[in-house]
Specification:
69 residues, mainly beta, Ubiquitin-like (UB roll), 5-stranded mixed beta sheet, 1 helix, 5 strands, globular, Thi_S, Beta-grasp_dom_sf, Thiamine biosynthesis protein ThiS, ThiS/MoaD-like
Length: 69
């Protein structure tokens, strides 16, 4: 069974058992340093990414810190 998620404003299909940690790691190419993850407008601590239960329709925002001037 799949669920529909919106990740950074793009709708995607994923297995219903996928973890928020796996989504974040896939998006950030396995590096979780300097990122923030929010689901439905609520920031999720990195320590809870593995156990966070996703539901179809969740809106995920993944932000990477960048340097600039």
């Amino acid at each position: 069974m799949n669920i529909t998620l919106e990740i950074n404003k793009q709708k995607t299909e994923h297995p219903s058992n996928i973890s928020l940690m796996q989504i974040a790691m896939d998006y950030c190419l396995q590096k979780l340093e300097g990122i923030a993850v929010a689901v439905n407008g609520k920031v999720i601590p990195k320590s809870k990414l593995s156990n966070y239960t996703l539901r179809s329709g969740d809106k995920i925002l993944i932000i990477k810190a960048t340097q600039g001037g």
